[in-house]
Amino acid sequence: MALTEAGERYLARIAVLLDELDRAGDESRAARFGPVGTLRLTASVAFGNACLMPLIPELRASFPKLKLELVLTDAILDLLTERIDLAIRLGPSPGTEGIGVKLLDTRYRVCAAPDYIARSSRLNSPADLANHRCVLFSLPDFRSRWLFRSMKGALTEVPIDGDVVISNALAVRHCAIAGVGPALLPNWLIDDDVTEKRLLDLFPNYRVAATSFDTAAWLLYPSRAFLPQKVRVAIDFLKRRLRTKRRIETDASRS
Q1: pLDDT per position as a tens digit, 245-255
Q2: Cβ contact 184:194 at 8 Å
Q3: Rounded to whole angstroms, how far apart are CA atoms 103 and 126?
Q4: CA distances from 96 to 26, 35, 93 (A)
Q5: What is the CA radius of gyration of the chain?
Q6: 86 contacts: CB under 8 Å, gap ≥ 6
Q7: Engineering a disulfide at 92: which of 26, 83, 113, 212 sits with its beta carbon 3.0 to 4.6 angstroms away?
Q8: Per-residue pLDDT tens digits for 172-208
Q9: How far apart are CA 155 and CA 208, in angstroms?
Q10: Residues in Cβ contact with 198 at an 8 Å cutoff, skipping those fewer than 6 apart
Q11: Is 44 in contact with 218 (CB distance < 8 Å)?
Q12: Whole-prediction pTM value?
């Protein structure tokens, strides 16, 4: 069976009303029992595994009546079509399809394994990367040149090349730890590795970027007349826990 053209138009008109009825019911139950319903949260595969998965037990314990549907994908999902309540996006800006709230600032580092450094030619300055085969992330801006800004503000564009190009940041990290070559990776993914000396920050006196030096993780949710309680508590929880985690990791890396 399939809807007629008139049926499709009718369904499109009432879909918003049905969503509003569902949310009104959730809000009514939430007023009595706390956050209820299903929260559909999406993030990249790497960010989800590195930053969200460790928080799932605490999130479940804090809001036991809240169901979580975690959609980990590197595709940019349409919030309304995919019925996403909350998305985490990485980049200089959150995009324009919803309401964006900064979750935390992000930075990139050029890292390599101690074993790779011990057996390779020197890496005293960013220009030395020309003599190395890097592990590259497959996005165009990440695989051809990296940007370096010194403590004095001098900007240098360094061409890079490599024989391993990967579409997933977790796999890039794995190759870097295995000693395949230097890699450009975000701090939220490799701060623990640097602290534990699995990876070495090759140029700690430089800011490094592929596209922009000002990047962040953003919380994005559809623009609606009201924000459901389940989304409000999730935003507050993620901001509190991830910012606390970043402060602890930053203090540990400086000590």
Answers
A1: 665 555 555 55
A2: no
A3: 30
A4: 27, 27, 9
A5: 22
A6: 39, 40, 41, 42, 219, 220, 221, 231, 234, 235
A7: 212
A8: 999 999 999 999 999 999 999 999 999 999 999 999 9
A9: 10
A10: 113, 177
A11: no
A12: 0.81
